[in-house]
Amino acid sequence: MQVHSELRFNSVLTHLGDVEYTASGFLEKNQDTILSDLFDLVNRTKARFIKTILGDSSESDSSRKKTLGFQFSSQLNNLMATLESTEPHYVRCIKPNSVKKPGVIDPVLILEQLRYSGIFEACEIRRHGYPFRYSHQSFCTRYKAIAPSLVSSDYRRLAVELISRMGVDPSEIKVGYNLVLYRSEQHRQMEIARFSFLEKVVTVVQKYVRGFLTRKSLRKWFVLRNQVPNVKARRNLAEVDEFLGKLRALRFHCPEINELEILRAHLLREIEIHRVLTALLQRDAEEAYEEYSKAIYEGESIGMSTPLFQTARQKLLSMKDRAQIAKDLKSAIETGDADKLRNTLSQHSKLSLPMTPQVKQAKEFLCVLEAEQSYIEKLKKACSRGGCCKENVIASLELYLRRAGSH
Questions:
Q1: pLDDT digits (tens, 9 = 90+) for 298-321
Q2: Distance CA 138, CA 309 (A)
Protein backbone atom coordinates (compact mmCIF):
# COMPACT_ATOMS: atom_id res chain seq x y z
CA MET A 1 0.00 0.00 0.00
CA GLN A 2 1.46 3.33 -1.04
CA VAL A 3 1.20 6.07 1.57
CA HIS A 4 1.15 9.66 0.39
CA SER A 5 3.14 12.13 2.45
CA GLU A 6 0.49 14.78 1.95
CA LEU A 7 -3.22 14.43 1.41
CA ARG A 8 -4.75 17.49 -0.31
CA PHE A 9 -8.31 18.35 -1.31
CA ASN A 10 -8.82 20.53 -4.31
CA SER A 11 -11.57 22.59 -2.76
CA VAL A 12 -14.48 22.37 -0.38
CA LEU A 13 -17.64 24.44 -0.88
CA THR A 14 -18.57 26.18 2.35
CA HIS A 15 -20.78 29.14 3.28
CA LEU A 16 -17.66 31.26 2.67
CA GLY A 17 -17.22 29.96 -0.88
CA ASP A 18 -14.61 27.59 -2.28
CA VAL A 19 -11.88 26.93 0.29
CA GLU A 20 -8.85 24.76 -0.28
CA TYR A 21 -7.79 22.39 2.53
CA THR A 22 -4.92 19.97 3.15
CA ALA A 23 -5.27 16.94 5.42
CA SER A 24 -1.57 16.57 6.09
CA GLY A 25 -0.96 16.52 9.87
CA PHE A 26 -4.64 17.04 10.58
CA LEU A 27 -4.82 14.51 13.43
CA GLU A 28 -1.58 15.61 15.06
CA LYS A 29 -2.58 19.28 14.98
CA ASN A 30 -6.04 18.67 16.38
CA GLN A 31 -5.35 16.01 19.00
CA ASP A 32 -6.17 17.81 22.22
CA THR A 33 -4.29 16.97 25.38
CA ILE A 34 -6.19 15.71 28.37
CA LEU A 35 -7.23 18.36 30.83
CA SER A 36 -5.32 18.67 34.05
CA ASP A 37 -8.43 17.82 36.11
CA LEU A 38 -8.70 14.49 34.24
CA PHE A 39 -5.05 13.76 34.90
CA ASP A 40 -5.58 14.38 38.59
CA LEU A 41 -8.52 12.00 38.58
CA VAL A 42 -6.49 9.30 36.82
CA ASN A 43 -3.71 9.66 39.33
CA ARG A 44 -6.13 8.86 42.10
CA THR A 45 -7.69 5.80 40.40
CA LYS A 46 -6.76 2.23 41.36
CA ALA A 47 -7.73 0.73 37.98
CA ARG A 48 -4.58 -0.32 36.20
CA PHE A 49 -6.36 -0.55 32.83
CA ILE A 50 -7.36 3.14 32.91
CA LYS A 51 -3.84 4.16 33.79
CA THR A 52 -2.60 2.13 30.84
CA ILE A 53 -4.99 3.84 28.43
CA LEU A 54 -4.14 7.38 29.49
CA GLY A 55 -0.44 6.78 29.78
CA ASP A 56 1.86 8.75 32.06
CA SER A 57 -0.20 11.32 33.92
CA SER A 58 2.70 12.85 35.74
CA GLU A 59 3.46 15.14 32.81
CA SER A 60 3.22 18.77 33.84
CA ASP A 61 0.89 21.30 32.22
CA SER A 62 3.77 23.40 30.87
CA SER A 63 5.31 20.44 29.04
CA ARG A 64 2.11 19.45 27.27
CA LYS A 65 1.85 20.51 23.65
CA LYS A 66 -0.99 22.91 22.92
CA THR A 67 -2.96 21.86 19.87
CA LEU A 68 -4.60 24.20 17.35
CA GLY A 69 -7.99 23.52 18.85
CA PHE A 70 -6.74 24.43 22.30
CA GLN A 71 -5.11 27.60 21.03
CA PHE A 72 -8.27 28.59 19.15
CA SER A 73 -10.38 27.94 22.22
CA SER A 74 -8.08 30.08 24.37
CA GLN A 75 -8.05 32.92 21.86
CA LEU A 76 -11.84 32.79 21.54
CA ASN A 77 -12.25 32.96 25.32
CA ASN A 78 -9.90 35.96 25.48
CA LEU A 79 -11.80 37.69 22.65
CA MET A 80 -15.15 37.16 24.33
CA ALA A 81 -13.77 38.54 27.60
CA THR A 82 -12.52 41.64 25.78
CA LEU A 83 -15.84 42.17 23.96
CA GLU A 84 -17.84 41.85 27.16
CA SER A 85 -15.71 44.51 28.84
CA THR A 86 -16.27 47.07 26.03
CA GLU A 87 -19.00 48.47 23.79
CA PRO A 88 -17.98 47.10 20.37
CA HIS A 89 -18.99 48.72 17.09
CA TYR A 90 -18.37 46.61 14.01
CA VAL A 91 -17.28 47.96 10.64
CA ARG A 92 -17.59 45.65 7.69
CA CYS A 93 -14.79 46.26 5.17
CA ILE A 94 -15.31 45.27 1.55
CA LYS A 95 -12.33 44.59 -0.70
CA PRO A 96 -13.02 46.30 -4.07
CA ASN A 97 -10.52 44.35 -6.17
CA SER A 98 -7.78 41.73 -6.02
CA VAL A 99 -5.06 43.77 -7.71
CA LYS A 100 -4.80 46.32 -4.89
CA LYS A 101 -5.23 49.35 -7.17
CA PRO A 102 -7.40 52.43 -6.63
CA GLY A 103 -10.36 53.12 -8.89
CA VAL A 104 -10.82 49.44 -9.83
CA ILE A 105 -14.16 47.83 -8.91
CA ASP A 106 -14.76 44.10 -9.23
CA PRO A 107 -18.56 43.59 -8.86
CA VAL A 108 -18.32 39.80 -8.67
CA LEU A 109 -15.75 39.95 -5.86
CA ILE A 110 -17.82 42.49 -3.92
CA LEU A 111 -21.01 40.44 -4.31
CA GLU A 112 -19.24 37.32 -3.09
CA GLN A 113 -17.99 39.14 -0.01
CA LEU A 114 -21.45 40.47 0.78
CA ARG A 115 -23.02 37.06 0.27
CA TYR A 116 -20.43 34.99 2.14
CA SER A 117 -20.08 37.43 5.05
CA GLY A 118 -23.78 37.09 5.86
CA ILE A 119 -24.67 40.75 5.20
CA PHE A 120 -27.82 39.86 3.27
CA GLU A 121 -28.99 37.43 5.95
CA ALA A 122 -28.32 39.99 8.68
CA CYS A 123 -30.32 42.62 6.81
CA GLU A 124 -33.20 40.18 6.31
CA ILE A 125 -33.20 39.21 9.97
CA ARG A 126 -33.04 42.84 10.97
CA ARG A 127 -35.93 43.70 8.69
CA HIS A 128 -38.18 41.03 10.18
CA GLY A 129 -37.13 41.82 13.72
CA TYR A 130 -37.02 45.06 15.76
CA PRO A 131 -33.86 46.91 14.75
CA PHE A 132 -34.49 49.90 17.02
CA ARG A 133 -34.10 49.13 20.69
CA TYR A 134 -33.99 51.74 23.42
CA SER A 135 -34.13 51.45 27.15
CA HIS A 136 -37.15 53.09 28.75
CA GLN A 137 -35.06 55.99 30.05
CA SER A 138 -33.25 56.55 26.72
CA PHE A 139 -36.55 56.46 24.82
CA CYS A 140 -38.15 59.00 27.17
CA THR A 141 -35.08 61.24 27.02
CA ARG A 142 -35.19 61.29 23.21
CA TYR A 143 -38.92 61.88 22.75
CA LYS A 144 -39.81 63.77 25.94
CA ALA A 145 -39.78 67.05 23.96
CA ILE A 146 -43.02 65.96 22.21
CA ALA A 147 -44.98 66.12 25.47
CA PRO A 148 -43.04 68.27 27.96
CA SER A 149 -46.00 68.35 30.34
CA LEU A 150 -45.67 64.64 31.08
CA VAL A 151 -43.77 64.03 34.31
CA SER A 152 -43.23 60.63 35.86
CA SER A 153 -40.49 58.69 37.58
CA ASP A 154 -41.77 55.47 36.00
CA TYR A 155 -40.01 55.52 32.62
CA ARG A 156 -41.92 52.52 31.30
CA ARG A 157 -45.30 54.12 31.89
CA LEU A 158 -43.96 57.42 30.53
CA ALA A 159 -42.77 55.64 27.37
CA VAL A 160 -46.23 54.11 26.81
CA GLU A 161 -47.84 57.56 27.23
CA LEU A 162 -45.40 59.16 24.78
CA ILE A 163 -46.13 56.46 22.17
CA SER A 164 -49.84 57.13 22.44
CA ARG A 165 -49.33 60.86 21.83
CA MET A 166 -47.09 60.50 18.77
CA GLY A 167 -49.80 59.14 16.47
CA VAL A 168 -48.15 55.80 15.72
CA ASP A 169 -49.73 52.35 15.83
CA PRO A 170 -49.08 51.07 19.38
CA SER A 171 -49.40 47.49 18.20
CA GLU A 172 -46.24 47.87 16.11
CA ILE A 173 -44.19 49.00 19.12
CA LYS A 174 -43.34 46.52 21.84
CA VAL A 175 -42.70 47.87 25.31
CA GLY A 176 -40.93 45.20 27.35
CA TYR A 177 -39.69 45.17 30.88
CA ASN A 178 -36.39 46.83 29.94
CA LEU A 179 -36.54 47.94 26.29
CA VAL A 180 -38.78 49.65 23.76
CA LEU A 181 -38.60 47.82 20.41
CA TYR A 182 -39.92 49.01 17.05
CA ARG A 183 -39.22 48.93 13.33
CA SER A 184 -37.95 51.50 10.86
CA GLU A 185 -41.39 52.74 9.80
CA GLN A 186 -42.37 53.57 13.36
CA HIS A 187 -38.96 55.13 13.92
CA ARG A 188 -39.48 57.38 10.89
CA GLN A 189 -42.90 58.52 12.12
CA MET A 190 -41.64 59.28 15.62
CA GLU A 191 -38.60 61.15 14.30
CA ILE A 192 -40.84 63.30 12.08
CA ALA A 193 -42.98 64.17 15.09
CA ARG A 194 -39.88 64.94 17.14
CA PHE A 195 -38.28 67.11 14.45
CA SER A 196 -41.54 68.99 13.90
CA PHE A 197 -41.72 69.92 17.57
CA LEU A 198 -38.03 70.75 17.80
CA GLU A 199 -38.33 73.03 14.78
CA LYS A 200 -40.92 75.12 16.60
CA VAL A 201 -38.85 75.20 19.77
CA VAL A 202 -35.65 76.11 17.94
CA THR A 203 -37.43 78.94 16.09
CA VAL A 204 -38.55 80.46 19.39
CA VAL A 205 -35.10 80.08 20.90
CA GLN A 206 -33.49 81.65 17.83
CA LYS A 207 -35.89 84.57 18.04
CA TYR A 208 -34.90 85.43 21.59
CA VAL A 209 -31.18 84.82 21.03
CA ARG A 210 -31.07 86.92 17.88
CA GLY A 211 -33.03 89.68 19.59
CA PHE A 212 -30.60 89.67 22.51
CA LEU A 213 -27.55 89.77 20.24
CA THR A 214 -29.05 92.52 18.06
CA ARG A 215 -29.88 94.70 21.05
CA LYS A 216 -26.35 94.16 22.31
CA SER A 217 -24.93 95.20 18.93
CA LEU A 218 -27.25 98.22 18.85
CA ARG A 219 -25.95 99.47 22.21
CA LYS A 220 -22.42 99.03 20.94
CA TRP A 221 -23.28 100.92 17.76
CA PHE A 222 -24.61 103.88 19.77
CA VAL A 223 -21.17 104.17 21.37
CA LEU A 224 -19.20 103.71 18.16
CA ARG A 225 -21.14 106.15 16.00
CA ASN A 226 -20.28 109.02 18.38
CA GLN A 227 -16.60 108.33 17.72
CA VAL A 228 -16.90 108.37 13.92
CA PRO A 229 -16.46 112.20 13.52
CA ASN A 230 -13.19 112.09 15.48
CA VAL A 231 -11.93 109.18 13.40
CA LYS A 232 -12.79 111.00 10.17
CA ALA A 233 -11.10 114.18 11.39
CA ARG A 234 -7.82 112.42 12.23
CA ARG A 235 -7.71 110.72 8.78
CA ASN A 236 -5.45 107.91 9.99
CA LEU A 237 -5.63 104.82 7.78
CA ALA A 238 -4.76 102.31 10.52
CA GLU A 239 -7.36 103.80 12.85
CA VAL A 240 -9.99 103.76 10.09
CA ASP A 241 -9.29 100.09 9.38
CA GLU A 242 -9.57 99.21 13.06
CA PHE A 243 -12.83 101.12 13.42
CA LEU A 244 -14.27 99.51 10.29
CA GLY A 245 -13.53 96.10 11.80
CA LYS A 246 -15.54 97.00 14.90
CA LEU A 247 -18.49 98.24 12.83
CA ARG A 248 -18.48 95.17 10.57
CA ALA A 249 -18.56 92.92 13.63
CA LEU A 250 -22.04 94.23 14.41
CA ARG A 251 -25.06 92.14 13.42
CA PHE A 252 -26.34 94.75 10.97
CA HIS A 253 -24.98 97.11 8.32
CA CYS A 254 -24.77 100.64 9.70
CA PRO A 255 -24.44 103.76 7.48
CA GLU A 256 -21.11 104.73 9.08
CA ILE A 257 -19.49 101.77 7.30
CA ASN A 258 -20.12 103.39 3.90
CA GLU A 259 -18.72 106.72 5.09
CA LEU A 260 -15.55 105.16 6.47
CA GLU A 261 -15.08 102.99 3.38
CA ILE A 262 -15.18 106.12 1.23
CA LEU A 263 -12.72 107.82 3.60
CA ARG A 264 -10.47 104.77 3.46
CA ALA A 265 -10.45 104.88 -0.34
CA HIS A 266 -9.54 108.58 -0.20
CA LEU A 267 -6.72 107.91 2.26
CA LEU A 268 -5.31 105.19 0.04
CA ARG A 269 -5.47 107.61 -2.89
CA GLU A 270 -3.78 110.27 -0.76
CA ILE A 271 -0.90 107.91 -0.08
CA GLU A 272 -0.50 107.28 -3.80
CA ILE A 273 -0.69 111.02 -4.63
CA HIS A 274 1.81 111.76 -1.86
CA ARG A 275 4.22 109.27 -3.42
CA VAL A 276 3.78 110.83 -6.88
CA LEU A 277 4.25 114.41 -5.59
CA THR A 278 7.36 113.42 -3.65
CA ALA A 279 8.90 112.18 -6.88
CA LEU A 280 7.72 115.24 -8.88
CA LEU A 281 9.24 117.71 -6.44
CA GLN A 282 12.63 116.26 -7.29
CA ARG A 283 12.16 117.10 -10.98
CA ASP A 284 11.97 120.33 -12.99
CA ALA A 285 8.52 121.82 -12.51
CA GLU A 286 8.27 123.08 -16.07
CA GLU A 287 8.98 119.63 -17.54
CA ALA A 288 6.50 117.87 -15.23
CA TYR A 289 3.74 120.48 -15.53
CA GLU A 290 1.10 118.04 -16.83
CA GLU A 291 1.86 115.45 -14.14
CA TYR A 292 1.71 118.18 -11.49
CA SER A 293 -1.68 119.32 -12.76
CA LYS A 294 -3.11 115.78 -12.75
CA ALA A 295 -1.88 114.99 -9.24
CA ILE A 296 -3.09 118.30 -7.78
CA TYR A 297 -6.50 117.91 -9.46
CA GLU A 298 -6.98 114.43 -7.97
CA GLY A 299 -5.85 115.66 -4.55
CA GLU A 300 -8.31 118.56 -4.60
CA SER A 301 -11.15 116.22 -5.61
CA ILE A 302 -10.71 114.18 -2.42
CA GLY A 303 -10.05 117.12 -0.13
CA MET A 304 -6.33 116.51 0.37
CA SER A 305 -4.66 119.08 2.61
CA THR A 306 -1.30 117.72 3.73
CA PRO A 307 1.71 120.08 3.91
CA LEU A 308 3.36 118.35 0.96
CA PHE A 309 0.22 118.75 -1.10
CA GLN A 310 -0.02 122.46 -0.23
CA THR A 311 3.61 122.98 -1.26
CA ALA A 312 3.05 121.24 -4.58
CA ARG A 313 -0.20 123.14 -5.10
CA GLN A 314 1.49 126.51 -4.57
CA LYS A 315 4.21 125.47 -6.98
CA LEU A 316 1.61 124.55 -9.57
CA LEU A 317 -0.24 127.83 -9.08
CA SER A 318 3.04 129.68 -9.50
CA MET A 319 3.65 127.87 -12.77
CA LYS A 320 0.13 128.67 -13.92
CA ASP A 321 0.51 132.33 -13.00
CA ARG A 322 3.80 132.58 -14.84
CA ALA A 323 2.32 130.94 -17.91
CA GLN A 324 -0.67 133.27 -17.86
CA ILE A 325 1.50 136.37 -17.30
CA ALA A 326 3.77 135.37 -20.15
CA LYS A 327 0.75 134.92 -22.38
CA ASP A 328 -0.75 138.27 -21.36
CA LEU A 329 2.58 140.09 -21.84
CA LYS A 330 2.96 138.69 -25.33
CA SER A 331 -0.57 139.70 -26.22
CA ALA A 332 -0.13 143.22 -24.79
CA ILE A 333 3.13 143.78 -26.65
CA GLU A 334 1.63 142.62 -29.93
CA THR A 335 -1.43 144.86 -29.58
CA GLY A 336 0.39 147.77 -27.95
CA ASP A 337 -2.14 147.78 -25.07
CA ALA A 338 -0.47 149.88 -22.38
CA ASP A 339 -3.19 149.32 -19.76
CA LYS A 340 -3.04 145.53 -20.12
CA LEU A 341 0.71 145.62 -20.08
CA ARG A 342 0.71 147.76 -16.94
CA ASN A 343 -1.76 145.46 -15.11
CA THR A 344 0.14 142.33 -16.08
CA LEU A 345 3.43 143.73 -14.82
CA SER A 346 1.74 144.80 -11.60
CA GLN A 347 0.43 141.24 -11.08
CA HIS A 348 3.91 139.90 -11.78
CA SER A 349 5.30 142.16 -9.10
CA LYS A 350 2.66 141.13 -6.53
CA LEU A 351 3.37 137.44 -7.06
CA SER A 352 7.12 138.05 -6.63
CA LEU A 353 7.87 136.08 -9.76
CA PRO A 354 11.43 136.01 -11.11
CA MET A 355 12.58 138.51 -13.73
CA THR A 356 12.66 137.03 -17.21
CA PRO A 357 13.76 138.53 -20.57
CA GLN A 358 10.14 138.78 -21.60
CA VAL A 359 9.25 140.79 -18.49
CA LYS A 360 12.23 143.08 -19.04
CA GLN A 361 11.20 143.65 -22.66
CA ALA A 362 7.64 144.34 -21.54
CA LYS A 363 8.80 147.01 -19.08
CA GLU A 364 10.86 148.76 -21.74
CA PHE A 365 8.01 148.62 -24.19
CA LEU A 366 5.69 150.10 -21.56
CA CYS A 367 8.05 153.03 -21.16
CA VAL A 368 7.89 153.61 -24.92
CA LEU A 369 4.13 153.47 -24.91
CA GLU A 370 3.90 155.86 -21.95
CA ALA A 371 6.30 158.33 -23.65
CA GLU A 372 4.29 158.06 -26.84
CA GLN A 373 1.13 158.75 -24.96
CA SER A 374 2.73 161.74 -23.25
CA TYR A 375 3.84 163.32 -26.55
CA ILE A 376 0.48 162.70 -28.09
CA GLU A 377 -1.17 164.48 -25.23
CA LYS A 378 1.18 167.42 -25.58
CA LEU A 379 0.46 167.64 -29.28
CA LYS A 380 -3.26 167.53 -28.65
CA LYS A 381 -2.97 170.37 -26.16
CA ALA A 382 -0.79 172.43 -28.49
CA CYS A 383 -3.14 171.98 -31.38
CA SER A 384 -6.16 172.73 -29.28
CA ARG A 385 -4.74 176.12 -28.22
CA GLY A 386 -4.18 177.05 -31.85
CA GLY A 387 -1.18 179.10 -30.89
CA CYS A 388 1.48 176.63 -31.66
CA CYS A 389 3.57 177.22 -34.69
CA LYS A 390 4.52 174.74 -37.30
CA GLU A 391 8.15 174.71 -36.20
CA ASN A 392 7.29 173.72 -32.60
CA VAL A 393 5.15 170.76 -33.74
CA ILE A 394 7.84 169.47 -36.04
CA ALA A 395 10.47 169.79 -33.30
CA SER A 396 8.27 167.83 -30.85
CA LEU A 397 7.68 165.04 -33.35
CA GLU A 398 11.37 164.76 -34.16
CA LEU A 399 12.21 164.51 -30.42
CA TYR A 400 9.58 161.84 -29.92
CA LEU A 401 10.75 159.81 -32.86
CA ARG A 402 14.36 159.94 -31.67
CA ARG A 403 13.36 158.64 -28.20
CA ALA A 404 11.08 155.97 -29.60
CA GLY A 405 13.84 154.82 -31.92
CA SER A 406 16.24 154.49 -29.01
CA HIS A 407 13.86 151.88 -27.39
A1: 888 887 878 888 887 777 767 776
A2: 76
